[in-house]
Amino acid sequence: MVAILGFIILPAIVVGIAAFNDKALLSFPPEQLSLRWFYKAISYRDFQTGFHNGLIVMLLSSFIALFIGGAFAFVIDRYEFRGKTLLEGLLLAPLVVPHFTVGLGLLILAAQIGATRGYTVVVVCHVILVLPFVLRSVYISLRNLDQRLELAAASLGSRPSRVLMTVTLPLLAPGLFSGWLFAAILSFNEFTASLFVTSQRTQTLPVAMYNYVREYADPTMAALSVIFIVVTATLLTVANAYLGLGKVLNVEQAR
Amino acid sequence: MLSRPADLLVEKTEPIMKAEPAPDIAVQLDGVSKRFGTSVALNDAWLKIGRGEFMTLLGPSGCGKTTLLNLVAGFLLPDDGEIFIDGALVTDVPTFERRTGIVFQNYALFPHMTVANNVAYGLKARGVAKSEISTRVAEILAMMKLAGFEDRKPRQLSGGQQQRVALARALVIRPKVLLLDEPFSALDKNLRASMQVEVKEIQRRLGVTTIFVTHDQSEALSLSDRIAVMSGGHICQIDTPERLYRRPADRFVASFIGEGSWLRAKLDRFGGAKGLVTIGKTIVEVPAEPLAGMATGANVDLFVRPEHLHVETANETGLDGTIAASIYQGGHIDLYVDMPQVSPAHILMRLSAKDANGLWNPGERISISVSGDDAVAFPPVSA
Questions:
Q1: pLDDT per residue as tens digits for the range B83-101
Q2: CB contact, 8 Å: A165 with chain B?
Q3: What is the mean pLDDT of chain A?
Q4: How far, in Å, CA of A153 to CA of B100, rounded?
């Protein structure tokens, strides 16, 4: 058990230690400790634009996916219609289609219609990829939502729009937030498909990192990885502490 | 299961005159039906509930009682028939305009709101002035013994308190009809009894028309002004608790309300509104109505309550039995008796404990008499 767990976190530990190496080689273990690679990682121009691009793409795609995924989850949860299973299948399809296929497909499509490789195609690509996660998350929250709460609200004289704003949305908030958070993290980390659809101008951080590592092999990458891990872990911890992600991820849990 | 093409045709060609409901009728259902796919959840229900009346819908699960409640609340729309609340046709009126207060089994309190906000919710939705909201909320919370709990969240309350909040939330809007959907079944036994008394007391004090859904017949008998017994999407009988117990209209109602045993008997003759039924050497008077059309001398099933069977010392009744089991219940003793000549099942008799003296041992043979009051007879099932 311990060995398995060790292997799971071993890469992160190795990278973490390498990040503090003073030498310009990805050697292990380090001989002298330093923070210079952290400084370089932060100040490197391509990383800065990559971070900036990634942030734009992340925000746009996660919010669009949240909106679309939320709407679809609502429809699938509340209505019976023909082709419901098909729709569900389609929406969850990106889970089984490889990322490079999505990226390649969009690249070909964009080329066909003569679109430049701008933000649009990157955002569209990320929306497709993160949609299943948002959908699942919101759908599970909807399943957990006791519809009698909405019925009670309606019987008390609340119009449907008011029920939505005062009962449904507040109670769905944790699910919506966690769905959005997953979408954001996935989008920000996404590499394979992004490699196809980004250009030099729109490259996101993981793509910039890839381009960097093709040319240099110093601990800057390791430093950046550490920053990545720390930021993501902090975000998740905070989210979990305030919202209880367990509640959102577990259908069985009692109300 | 049931399609009624003939009825539907009649309704199309001859629209029924929509009689204005009488002013003392709070809720009225005229021939309401509801189907889910091919199954009929409620079939041609006719019901009038008086203003201030406590009406219980009683039946086993799947009998259509909850469907009926949901139709009155407007959560479902009927396939056929009309629904009136306070004399106004509401068949197509959405829930939020019907002014019904509902209390669910799980109370459905808004978990993200305080007690005060839960109770104020309906008043806010109706655009009641702020100052009036706070007076009315304080008033109803005081009545429900919830003063001091205003800032609690529902999860910080006990089951009984949650139920009182749910009731306060429903009552504060002064509903035209209060709908109770098995509200006591989540409470433990002692709390249930005290909440039942409390709810009944408040209902009487406010004079609010109430529809109460339950599968628990003792709960129904103790709380209701009238009970509608339902089975398989039908309303079998609508009557006061006492009349339901003493004069069940059909076999289902007889078996569902209270306890009793079925005995094979013979129809002797009719006499006015009474039928005379012989069992052993005894002649028992029963209502004639359920037996209408039957020939004298035909077999009937006599339904008797446990307290109407008595042990006789002298064997003059022609009814003999063997004690199968005797169960001491404190105030009384339940005897299960085998009487193969009149029933394939055990017969339940109830003796007061002072008569018992511990003499009733399994295997002992006894003579039994049937007292005439409150027995009913029905045609045999597979006649």
A1: 999 989 999 999 999 999 9
A2: no
A3: 83
A4: 11
Cβ contact A155–B106 (<8 Å): no
**The CATH number of the domain where A138 resides is what?**
1.10.3720.10
Give percent of chain B with pLDDT exceeding 90. 49
Q: Which domain holds residue A230?
A: 47-249
Looking at chain B, the whole-number percentage of residues with pLDDT higher than 70 is 91
Size of interface A-B (CB pairs under 8 A): 66
CATH of domain B259-378: 2.40.50.100
Give residues with Cβ within 8 angstroms of B253, minimum separation 6.
B229, B236, B237, B244
Residue B125 to residue A158, Cβ atoms within 8 A: yes
CA-closest candidate to residue B191, choices B221, B225, B229, B157: B157
Chain B residues within 8 angstroms (CB to CB) of chain A = 73-75, 94-102, 104, 106, 108, 110-112, 121-122, 125-126, 169-170, 173, 179
In a domain, residue A112? The reply is: yes
Q: What is the 3-state secondary structure (H, E, C) of chain B?
A: CCCCHHHHHHHHHCCCCCCCCCCCEEEEEEEEEEEECCEEEEEEEEEEEECCCEEEEECCCCCCHHHHHHHHHCCCCCCEEEEEECCEECCCCCHHHCCEEEECCCCCCCCCCCHHHHHHHHHHHCCCCHHHHHHHHHHHHHHCCCCCCCCCCHHHCCHHHHHHHHHHHHHCCCCCEEEEECCCCCCCHHHHHHHHHHHHHHHHHHCCCEEEEECCHHHHHHHCCEEEEEECCEEEEEECHHHHHHCCCCHHHHHHCCCCEEEEEEEEEEECCEEEEEECCEEEEEECHHHCCCCCCCEEEEEECHHHEEEECCCCCCCEEEEEEEEECCCEEEEEEECCCCCCCEEEEEEEHHHHCCCCCCCCEEEEEECCCCCEEECCCCC
List the one residue out of A189, A190, A166, A186 whose CA is nearest residue A178.
A186
* pLDDT value of position A243: 64
Write down the domain spans for chain B.
5-251, 259-378
Q: What's the confidence (pLDDT) of residue B19?
A: 52
Residue A146, min C-alpha distance to chain B (Å) = 8
Q: What is the ipTM of this complex?
A: 0.81
pLDDT above 90 coverage of chain A, percent? 16
* CA distance to A216, B45, B58, B103, per residue, from B236 (Å): 85, 10, 10, 25
Q: Total structural domains in chain A?
A: 1
Per-residue model confidence as pLDDT tens digits over A180-213: 888 888 898 888 888 888 888 888 888 888 888 8
- The pLDDT value recorded for residue A250 is 43
The partner residue sitting opposite B108, judged by closest CB among A148, A158, A160, is: A148
- Nearest chain A residue to B100 by CA: give it: A155
Closest chain A residue to B120, measured at CA: A156
Say whether A166 and B121 touch across the interface (CB within 8 A).
Answer: yes
Instruction: Confirm or reject CATH 3.90.1720.10 for domain B5-251, answering yes or no.
Output: no
Q: Name the residue among A155, A166, A170 with its Cβ closest to that of B102.
A: A155
